[in-house]
């Protein structure tokens, strides 16, 4: 499973409006940027208290990426 697919799957499980969730992936030479888009009302669920959910998502990406750098931006 690709990083993009995993983040999209997890985000859909967290939010009230899963049909509004999508991830845009931009690959560079050594960095991949994932932009997670959710409905404005679900933003708090994806970020979590003190950013804990967002940090957990970034940790999962770090483990999956191994030798590449992956950046998660919540838009």
Order of helices and strands: HEEHHE
Query: How would the global form be characterised?
Result: globular
Summed up, the domain count is 1
Number of helices: 3
| CATH first level | Alpha Beta
* Helix-and-strand structural type: alpha+beta
End-to-end Cα distance, whole Å, is 23 Å
Amount of helix: 40-55%
Mean pLDDT rating = 93
If you consult CATH, what is the topology? GMP Synthetase, Chain A, domain 3
Query: Based on DSSP secondary structure assignment, what is the total number of beta strands?
Result: 3
Beta-strand percentage? Answer: 25-35%
* Uncertain segments: none
CATH H level: which superfamily?
K homology (KH) domain
Largest sheet: 3 strands, mixed
Oligomer class: single chain
CATH structural architecture: 2-Layer Sandwich
What topology, given as strand order, has the largest sheet?
A: 1-2-3
What is the rounded Rg?
Answer: 12 Å
Report on the architecture of this protein:
The chain has helices at about 5-15, 45, 50-65; strands spanning about 20-25, 30-35, 70-75. The two termini are about 25 Å apart. A hairpin with a 3-residue loop joins β1 and β2 (about 30-35). The protein has a three-stranded mixed beta sheet with strand order 1-2-3. It has a single domain (about 5-75), classed as K homology (KH) domain (GMP Synthetase, Chain A, domain 3, 2-Layer Sandwich), CATH 3.30.300.20. The mean pLDDT is about 95. About 15% of the residues are buried. It has three helices and three strands; from the N terminus they run αββααβ. The chain is α+β, with helices and mostly antiparallel strands and about 80 residues long. The chain is globular, with a radius of gyration of 12 Å.
């Amino acid at each position: 499973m690709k990083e993009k697919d995993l983040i999209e799957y997890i985000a859909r499980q967290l939010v009230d409006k899963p049909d509004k969730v999508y991830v845009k992936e931009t690959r560079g030479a050594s960095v991949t940027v994932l932009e997670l888009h959710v409905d404005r009302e679900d933003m708090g669920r994806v970020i979590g208290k003190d950013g804990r959910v967002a940090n957990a998502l970034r940790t999962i990406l770090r483990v999956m990426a191994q030798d590449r750098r992956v950046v998660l931006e919540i838009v």
